[in-house]
Amino acid sequence: MTIGKMTALGLGFVGAFALGVWTSPHIVQRVDRDASVVHETVPVPEVPEARPVAPARTASRSSAAPVARTARVDISAPALHERLKPVLNKGAKMEVAAEGFHSAEQFATVAHAARNTEVPFLLLKHRVLEEGKSVAEAIRESKPAVDAAHEADVAREQARSDIASIAG
Q: Do residues 146 and 131 touch, judged by C-beta distance below 8 A?
């Protein structure tokens, strides 16, 4: 092969490469992602103004109203896992199911809500943890025909009952 043919072949490859780089965005319809991102304007609900809080009065213990408190149970507690094992599907790995929740009550609430509404646990977990929705919103999005607020309240009460029985 002569030097002229090798040069022509090399220039042909370089030209084909340059042509591919130049035309590929038009063929694949891939343009600069920052320039093509469409931002939707989503209406944000107005939040009522916060009223100033009056300083708390010191009251005697006998006149103070009882405050409902949830017992503190660690999310990795074996007793909690044993208590919730029948609530989740058979074969569920409790360590994986509990992963990512902020509290035992949140974990138990989502587990009970999934069982009560027959919505897959992983779907509710994703909507609550990853999408930042409340349990009621996650239920409503999964099953619009269900009274989501009521189901969330029932699940929360069941979770508190479970935790109270464990902390005992």
A: no
Q: What share of the chain is helix, strand, coil (3-state, %, to 5)?
A: 55, 0, 45
The pLDDT, as a whole number, for residue 61 is 45
What is the tens place of the pLDDT at every residue in 79-138? 877 888 888 877 778 888 888 888 888 888 999 999 999 888 888 989 998 988 999 999
Tell me the chain's radius of gyration from C-alpha atoms.
Answer: 29
CB-CB contact of 109 with 82 (8 Å)? no
Give residue 107's Cα distance to chain centre.
12
Contact 112, 159 (CB under 8 A): yes
Q: How many domains does the chain have?
A: 2
Residue 43 lies in a domain: no
Tokens coding 47: 């939040």
Do both 26 and 82 map to the same domain? no
pTM for the model: 0.56
CA-CA distances (angstroms) from residue 165 to 82, 149, 153, 157? 12, 24, 18, 12
